[in-house]
Amino acid sequence: CVICGNAWRHEVMKWNGWGYSDSRFLFNKKGQAEFTGKRYKLSGMILPALKDWFEGTFGASLQHKSPATPLLNTSAVQAPTLNQDFVEELKSIGVPFSHEAEDRAFRGHGHCLHEIFALREGKIGRVPDMVVWPNCHNDVEKIVALACKHNVCLIPYGGGTSVSSALECPPEETRSIVSLDTSQMNRILWIDEKNLTAHVEAGIIGQDLERLLNESGYCTGHEPDSMEFSSLGGWVSTRASGMKKNIYGNIEDLVVHIKMVTPQGVIEKSCQGPRMSTGPDIHHFILGSEGTLGVVTEVTMKIRPVPEYQKYGSVVFPNFEQGVACLREVAKQRCAPASIRLMDNEQFMFGHALKPQVSSIFTSFLDGLKKFYITKFKGFDPSRLCVATLLFEGNREKVLQHEKQVYDIAAKFGGLAAGEDNGQRGYMLTFVIAYLRDLGMDYYVIAESFETSVPWDRVLDVCRNVKARVVRECKDKGVQFSPLSSCRVTQTYDAGACVYFYFAFNYRGLSDPVHVYEQVEHAAREEILANGGSLSHHHGVGKLRKEWMRETVSEVGVGMLQSVKDYVDPKNIFGNRNLL
Amino acid sequence: MKASDRDLRGMKDDEFVDILEERRCSSDLGHAFRTFNPQPYKGGPPCSAADLNKALLDSHFLHRVVKEVAMETGSSQEKVMEEAGEILVEMSHNLHLPFIRLMGYTFSKVIKRLFTSIFVNMDGLNTLQQAVQENPVILMPNHRSYVDFLIISYILFTYDIPVPVIAAGVPLAEMKIVGEILRRSGAFFIRRSIGSDKLYWAVLSEYVRGIVRHGFAPVEFYVEGLRSRTLKSLTPKLGMMQMVLEPYFKGEVFDITLVPISISYDRVLEESLLARELLGVPKPKESTAGLLKASRVLQEDYGSMQVNFGQPLSVRKLCEGKINRSYYNLVPRDLPMKPSAEALACVSWLAHVVVGLQERGSLISPWSLMACLLIQEPTTVLAEQGLLWDDLTEKTLWLRKMVLDFGARLNWPGEAPNSAVMSSAISLHRSIVYLKAGRVYLTQEEVPLRRHRISPEEGVFRTAVPVLMLAAYRNQSLHALVRPAMLAMSICITRSTQRDELFRFFCFLQEVFANEFIFIPGNLSQDFEEACLCLNSCGAVYISEQEVRVSEQSSEVITFLQKLLQPFIDSYQLIFRCVCEEEQVQVFTEKQFLAAVRALALKLILSGETESELHTYETLSSDTQKNVLSALCRLEAVAKLRTSEINEFKVNKAAVRRITDALCGKIPPQMLQAPPDARL
C-alpha cells in the first residue's frame, strides 16, 4: 500500500459492516447482549433487555445464527481493468494510487442492506479498478484532466456512508473505473473569525472537522447521524442534513463558497457575499449532484462559537398523533430546540431494550416509579405512548427559558416531561443503531432505514400508511415472521417534517431475502410518493431511487439536469450514473 | 348436514346457521342484555357520536365550504355555519348501546313471528370479525325489503361485532318515535334529492368521511340507493360510494374493507305493495301510523331469510393500478375538489363489482326457479286452465340441475323430499298461485261483492299484480341465468354460429339492457366467456376457437333461456314502437311518456292482438318503462333537454328504429358497433 492514510482506515473499520472494527454488539456466553470497544458511552456495557426484545420482536433465536464471512477473499475480487497510459501519467505526477483488492473492494460499496448482505456472504461485484488519493485541489485538477485525456471513469469517494447505491460501480461500465478517494484532503485551510467562516478541504470527516474547530472554540453545528464517517464533500454532493439544523441550518444553508473540479474546469463563485442575485445559484447545481459532475475540493462554511450550554430532554405523549400535533405546534411557533425528534411506540420499546444494566437498586426503583406514574396514574396506554427527545443549546439562561416554552406546549398535547436520560439515550441510539443492524444480520434479521419529507397535514397519513404497507408487503412476499415497522419524525420545518422509517424482519425460510427486502422497500417508497412524501429528504437518489426522478421533478426538470450534465461532462467521465 | 345434501343446496362449504333457533329456546330479554364486548378497532380509540359531530363542525373542509357558500349567497358565515349545524342535527346518528338492546329485543319478537328461520353464514361472520379490527369496514347489503334495515345490526350485535352506522333516507327520520329509535340504533339520515345544495353535500360527505376515517364503527349503506321493487339488482348509485372511498384515495386510511352482503328472502314482506307501486299506485309515505297499520302483514308466514356475508374486499388491492393517489399531492388535504375522472371510473367499477358479488352471494330459492317456469306460460293458461303440477315439478328439478351447473348458490332444503319442498313453496306463495286438483293456477284478488262488474282495465290490473309478483320472484334467479340467456338470445336472433358475431350481438344486448341487468364495466369478454362455458357445461352448445354451435339434443335449454329474456325484448320493442308511433310528437315529458306506454300496452293486452299476452304485462311496470327511457338516452336515441324545470326528452326516431331493427336481427351483427374491449 502506498500511503499510510488508507492503511489506517482499513485497520479500524469493518470491511463488511458498519463502523469501527472494535465496536460491535454481540450476545455473550450468558446470552446477554453487550457492546464492545471503548468508543461510545454504551461501550463495554451489558444490555440485559435486548435479548428478550430481539427474540420477542423478530421471532429470532440465539440458536439460529447466520454469521458473516470473516475475511475478504481477495480472489473473489475481479482483476482490475487498467488503462495503462493513465496509470503511467498518474505515476509521473506523483499522486498515490493502489490496485490492491482490499482497497478496491472497500470503495466499491456504500451501506445499503443489499451491499452489506453481499459482502457478508463474501460476494464482491464490480468494484473500482484502482484507487487514487489526491492530496489537494491541484492534484484533483490533474487527475480529472488525465481522466478526460485517457477516457477513464472517475467515481469520487468520501466517507463511504452512502445509502443510495451511489458508490456501486455501474456493471455496464467498460472503461477503467478509478475511485477518487478524498480522504487525504482533510485540512482546515483557514478560519475567518471576522466573518465566522472556515475554509476546509472537502475530504475532511465530520467528527474531525468538529474536533478541530472545537479546538479554536468553534463548530459548524452540522451533525448528520453519519458524522463519524461521512465527509464534507459527501454532504455537499448529497444535500445532507444535520440533526441540529434548527439552529445551524442544513448543508445548503451552511456553505458560503464551493470549489468543484469538473471536466470543463473549475467552477466557483468570485466572492463570498452572503447572498447573491446572479441568476440561479450555481451552488445548487453542485449541491445534490451526487458525483455526476465533478469533485468538490474545497468549501467555505459558516462557523459558530461552541455553545455554552447543552441540555437533553424528553417528553412522553399518550400517543403518536398527540406527539405529531405537538411538533407541529412547536414548528408553528418557530421555537424548535436544536433538535426535536418523535419516536413511535415501537421505537420507544426498542429504546427501552437498549437500557444498560442498572447499577443501583435506587435507579431501578425510580424507573419503576416513573413507569407506574405514567401508565397507571396518568393512564397512558403502554402500547400507544411515544416519546419525543429534545436537545437544547445556547446560553444557559436562554436554554432554560426555551425549555420551559417547549414543555409548556407539550403539556397542551398531553405530554409529560420524562427526563434528560431518556433524551440523551435517544440520541446515543442514533449512533449505535447502525451497529445493531450487523447484530441482527448475525441472527437472520435484516433491517434498513429510509426517509422522506412531507407536509404537516400528511405526516400522520404517511407514517401510518407506510408502516402498514411494509407489514402487508412482508406478509404478501412470504416473510414468515411479523416485521418491525417503525418510524420517527426527525426534523421539523415551517411547512412539514422529515420522517424516518425503520423496518426489519427475520428472513428464516426465505430463499432470496434480499430480493424480498428490495420489493418491500420499493413498495414502501411507492406508498410514500402516493401519500405526498418526497423521494428523499437527505439520503439522495443515487441509483436506488433513480426510477422515480422523472415523476419527482417532471420531464422538463430531468431535461434541465441532463443538459447541465451534457455540458459539464460530455464524455461522462464522472460515470457513476447516479441521479439521472 | 351430509356432504351430498350440501352440494344439492349449492351452498358449498359455507356453514349456514339458523340464528332464530337459539332465539326460540332462550330468553329474548337475556339476549338483549347480553354482554356486548366486541374486539376493539386497532386503528384508534372509539369516538362518540358527539365527538364525531364536533370534529366535523371544526373541520377546515367545512369552514372552507361555509366561507364559499357565504360569499355566494351573501349571508354571513355564522349564519351558514348555523345552517350546517342544523343539517348535521337532522343527519347525524346517535348510536347508543341501550337502544341497540331495545331494538334487539323488539326485533327478536318480530322476526320470530315473521320468519321460520334466518340463515347466516358463520365463516363470513368470522372473517368480518377479523376485518373490523384491521381497517374501516363498509357493509354493503342489497336492499329488497324494509326488514333489511336492522337485520345486519341485529346479527352483529348477537355475534359481538361492532354495530354499524347506517345510511337511511330522511323520510324514516320523520317517523314519530321510530325515527328516533333508528337514530339511536345507528341510523344517519340523508335527504332524497340533494341536487346542487353545496352546503348539504359538504356536511354529508365530510360526515361520512369522518366515520370512515375513525373506523371504529362499520358503515352500512345500500349501494343500490333504493329498495329494488323488482327484486333485481339496481344500477349502483355512486355518490355515497365515492364519499366512503375518498379517505382511501386521499391516503387518510391505509385501506378500506368492503363487505358485500346478500340478503335473500323466500317471500318478501312488501311483495304485493311493490307490484302495485310498479303499476302506478303511489308508495305510501313512511309513517309510524302506517307502520302500525301494516302490522297485519305480521300475521303471515314469510318462510326463511338468508344473510350471506361475502368475503371482505380490500379497496387497496382492487384499486391497484387503477388510481393514482398522488393526484391530491399538490393541494391542501381539506380543499373541496372534484374527484379525478380516473377516481370516478374506479368508484363506478367498484360499485358494480360489489353488486355483482351481492348477486353471486344470493341464494336462489326453489320458488324462484318455479317462478321462472310459471311465467313462461301464457297468462290465460295460468289464470284459467292452470298448469299441470307434475310438469312443473319435473321441469323445476331440471332447472335446478341447470343452475347448479351454472355455479349458482341454491337454497334447496335437503332434508325434505323434493315434492314437499315445491308444494310448500306454492303454499307459502298462495298470494300468487294456488294448487288445485293437480294443477297450478294464478291467484287473483277477489272482486268485492258490492260490485257486479269490473272494467276491462281493472281486470288487467287484477291479473297484472300477481304476474308482476311472479316476475319479481323470477328475477331472484336472473343473475345466475342472464349471461347464458343473453348468449342463447344472441344465437336465436342472429342465427349465427360465429363466435365474433355472437359476441358482438351479446355486447349489444348488454348495452341495451344495462339498466335491467348489472354487468361490471369492462368485463364484456369475461361475461361472454362465462356464458359460453355455462351453455357448454349443460351440453347445450359445443364451443371451439371460432364457433359456438347448438347441440341438437339439448335445444330445450336454449329455448328456455330465450323465453326467459323474451319479456324484456318484447317490452322494449313495444316501448320503442310507442316512441316512434306518435307521428307529430317529437318532445315529451317523462309523465307523458309513461302514460302513452301504459295506454298502448293496455290496448294491446285487451285487444288480444299481441301473440303472447303475458309478456306485455311486464311492459306495464313503471320500472321497465323508466329503464327503457334511460337506455334510449344512453344509446343517444333520445336526448334530455334541460330547458325547463321538468325534464323533457327529444326523440330521434331513426335511431330508435335502428335499435329496433338490430334487436330483431334485421341488422347483421358485423354492422353493429364493435364492443369497446373486444379481446377475442
Automatic annotation (TrEMBL), chain A:
Locations listed in the record: Peroxisome membrane
Keyword Acetylation set for record: yes
Binding site for substrate: R437
Pfam families: FAD-oxidase_C (PF02913), FAD_binding_4 (PF01565)
Annotated GO CC locations: peroxisomal membrane
Gene Ontology terms: biological process: ether lipid biosynthetic process
Primary localization: membrane
Site residues (Important for enzyme activity), renumbered to this chain: R341
EC number from the UniProt entry: 2.5.1.26
Keyword annotations: Acetylation, FAD, Flavoprotein, Lipid biosynthesis, Lipid metabolism, Membrane, Peroxisome, Phosphoprotein, Transferase, Transit peptide
Uppermost EC category: transferase
Known pathway: Glycerolipid metabolism; ether lipid biosynthesis; Lipid metabolism
InterPro entries, A to Z: Alkyl-DHAP_Synthase (IPR025650), FAD-bd_oxidored_4_C (IPR004113), FAD-bd_PCMH (IPR016166), FAD-bd_PCMH-like_sf (IPR036318), FAD-bd_PCMH_sub1 (IPR016167), FAD-bd_PCMH_sub2 (IPR016169), FAD-linked_Oxase-like_C (IPR016164), Oxid_FAD_bind_N (IPR006094)
Alphabetical list of PROSITE patterns matching this protein: FAD_PCMH (PS51387)
Cofactor(s) named in the record: FAD
Record bears the keyword Lipid metabolism: yes
Catalytic reactions of this protein: 1-hexadecanoylglycerone 3-phosphate + a long-chain fatty acid = a 1-acylglycerone 3-phosphate + hexadecanoate; a long chain fatty alcohol + a 1-acylglycerone 3-phosphate = a 1-O-alkylglycerone 3-phosphate + a long-chain fatty acid + H(+); hexadecan-1-ol + 1-hexadecanoylglycerone 3-phosphate = 1-O-hexadecylglycerone 3-phosphate + hexadecanoate + H(+)
Subunit structure: Homodimer.
Family, per entry: Belongs to the FAD-binding oxidoreductase/transferase type 4 family.
Protein name, UniProt field: Alkylglycerone-phosphate synthase
Encoding gene per record: agps
